[in-house]
Write a structure and sequence with these properties.
disordered C terminus, alpha/beta, binds adenosine-5'-triphosphate, binds magnesium ion, eight-stranded mixed β-sheet
């Protein structure tokens, strides 16, 4: 009995669940009804870029999942840009909303429970600019593959187990090049398979996905993604399943293809090494929000948000002896009941009194470097934090600094 005596704060009664799911059906039903109208006029989904040099502009995007136990705010006010011809790296710990951000851009979030409920995602397709949030599915089908394509996180699930590799790649090539003959399509498929480093391309053409290793499967996925020379390549952990040498080759391949067709890459990864090698700009996400963004140089040289600082400290450095690698204490708050204050506060070694207030606004540290943290309201402090050595614990440093300041005043 003792086990059940204490009331769990997360407990939801079946009555409550029913009420939530009824409410969810009402909300998602309305959105779906609006989306499924026939002949939606272009004026509802065409828009203009804020800066025409960008391929994509995320502007305060909110993507929620309406589940029976509450609303998961997976992406909760994300804003960043992907400039033409550049690579933007997105980092953040598992579950922070990286994949959902990219799926929102492709309109592939699991519907009807997953919905982008607010904000704009502007996609620059050359002649026209689309607000993806309002774009009807029929138009999206033309954009996906031709203009933007995605290399998925799990190669196991991205390929269809009942079709041969050749058929799956052929289908994409043929769909986007209707004028090609069967032979030409096959030739292009073999060429793509060779381009991504599959030696036995003729053999693999006739194989089923289960006959390939994980790395080979991922290379097939990359071949499919790159088959139509898209303007934007979204790569969600593209090299996680590959060994280090192949990883380097694939990254080189993506980079050279990007330059050849002047496309841009949105690169999602846990691997800061990959980001350092590939990215021009870095976006750091935490619990569905962007906490810091800037050029790769700025993020690696002067990480400013305490979470980014922690992230940099938790990566091993060759030649540097440490007893134990740093790990950020605590865990991410429950996505269903997010606090009103900074989401990182409870894990933050540098938190101060102000952090208990409402969620911090965006502060510009340079024209390209932005951070959401109360510590930078006073820019003087920014200079200090940027210079701190990443070794000692934050609180010690903070106290040291306060001590010094006191001594100066005396
Ligand atoms: N279909 C879904 N239904 C309900 N919640 C979902 C669904 N898909 C994702 N979520 C939630 O959205 C949040 C963000 O998930 P997402 O997949 O974007 O994380 P991620 O940053 O890509 O993590 P990882 O690095 O592990 O891939 C998580 O809290 C997850 O539980
Ligand atoms: Mg993911």
């Amino acid at each position: 009995m003792a086990l059940f005596g204490k009331k769990n704060a997360n407990y939801i009664s079946s009555k409550e669940t029913k009420r939530i799911s009824r409410e969810n059906r009402r909300v998602t039903g309305e959105i779906e009804k609006k989306r499924n109208r026939k002949n939606i006029p272009e004026s509802e989904y065409l828009t203009r870029m804020k800066n025409p040099a960008n391929v994509v502009e995320f502007d305060d995007v909110h993507t929620y999942f309406f589940t029976d136990i509450g609303t998961v705010k997976a992406v909760n006010g994300v804003s960043f840009e992907v400039p033409q011809g550049k690579t933007v790296g997105i980092v953040g710990e598992s579950g922070c909303g990286k994949s959902v951000t990219s799926l929102s851009l492709m309109q592939l979030v699991q519907r009807p429970q997953g919905q982008t409920v607010a904000g704009e995602i502007r996609f620059n397709a050359g002649e026209k600019v689309y607000n993806i949030v309002n774009t009807p599915t029929s138009v999206m089908q033309k954009l996906r593959g031709n203009e933007m394509s995605m290399i998925f996180q799990e190669p196991m699930t991205a390929l269809n187990p009942v079709f041969r590799i050749g058929d799956q790649v052929d289908e994409i090539v043929a769909l986007h090049n209707p004028s090609m003959s069967r032979e030409q399509v096959k030739e292009r498929t073999i060429e793509m398979l060779e381009m991504v480093g599959i030696a036995n391309s003729q053999g693999v053409y006739r194989m089923y996905p289960h006959e390939l290793s994980g790395g080979m499967r991922q290379r097939v996925c990359i071949a499919i993604g790159l088959a139509c020379n898209p303007k934007l390549i979204i790569a969600d952990e593209p090299t996680t399943a590959l060994d280090v040498t192949i990883q380097a080759q694939i990254l080189d391949l993506m980079r050279s293809l990007k330059d050849k067709i002047n496309s841009s890459i949105m690169l999602i990864t846990h691997d800061l090494g990959v980001i350092a090698e590939m990215a021009d700009y870095v976006v750091v996400m935490y619990a569905g929000r962007v906490v810091e963004k800037g050029t790769a140089q700025e993020i690696f040289k002067t990480p400013s948000h305490p979470y980014t600082i922690g992230l940099m400290r938790s990566k091993p450095v060759v030649g540097k002896q440490v007893e134990k690698l740093y790990s950020i204490p605590g865990k991410v708050p429950n996505p269903i009941n997010m606090p009103d204050y900074c989401y990182f506060k409870d894990r933050c070694e540098l938190s101060c009194e102000k952090c208990g207030g409402r969620y911090p606004g965006v502060i510009k540290l340079s024209p390209t470097h932005e951070v959401s943290c109360y510590r930078y309201e006073d820019r003087r402090e920014a200079g200090w934090l940027a210079q701190v050595e990443l070794g000692a614990s934050g609180r010690e440093r903070q106290q040291e600094e306060k001590g010094k300041e006191g001594a100066r005043h005396e």
